[in-house]
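Support request, please re-run this one:
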Amino acid sequence: MTVALPLSRPLTKQLLVRSARSLTRPVSANPLLRVTCHCSSNNDPSGSHPQVGKFASLCQRARTYATASAKPASRPKQHTGRTPAKSTKSTTKKATPKKKRPARKAKKTVATKAKPKVKKPLSKTALLKKARKVQADLRAAALLEEPKPLPSTPWRLVFAEETKKGGGQVKAAATAAAQKFRNLSLEERERYNHEATENKAKNDRAYKQWVQTHSPLEIKLANNARRQLTKKAKAAGKKKQYKSIQDDRSVHRPRNAYAFFFKERNDSGDLQGMTVGERGKLIGQEWKKLSAAEKKTYEDQAQVDKDRYLEEYKTVYGEDPPFTKKKSG
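Re-run finished. Output below.
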């Protein structure tokens, strides 16, 4: 802070020279500058210069004014450990409407044909496993566990006796049975024949009882499985044959018009002395020469037989015949 005083220029220079060091000095406690003067006051009779006393009194006033107007420096506040709350100014900007992007044009999708899935060929192990499963299913459906028949002929009775005596050795039993059978007396033959007849009647009764334990549809499916097993055995070079199961409940397939004509011509007696091939050739030629009116009689018989088959099949097996299923599907 500087103070302008109405002093003459020579007097000011003298004052500055004498009190250059003691006029002003910084004080650490007050940011303002304090002005001190060691000159005597104007009323002091010891003072040599009366102007200097006036200047000193003015400096004293200025110092007291500066100390009175200056505010004491405030002490720093003690730290309480709390973080001062940050002033949050609400800076809410007005939402500017977004510009709508133009809709993209949908790309034309070309319909691609789905590629057919190519099945990988089965390995040898998988094929063998599949064949074994098919064979096992066929054998299970074929109902191969028939009742064991008793010996129904005199030779079989003699062979069975010799097998028991020989301890199960087939070759030795067959040789002994052949020799014994050739040397049988008439009484022994009669006894063996009677026993064989009784065994045959027992076998028939046991066989019919076994068939009756299965439904007609199961017997029908078993015969289909047996035919397939026979074909497979023949293809493998084996002579194994599986006979069809005889069931009186089975439904006979219908005959066509030509079958009725063939039966009528064969039973007439006009073709005696001919072989089966010759009869078939001659009857076929006669069938071709028949008119539509003459064939109508045999066609009507075939239609009646077909109706009979449809009715019996549905009654016995409980389902429609296979050919009617195919037509309806």
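Confidence is low (pLDDT under 50) at residues 26-35, 39-48. The domain at 257-317 is CATH 1.10.30 (DNA Binding (I), subunit A).
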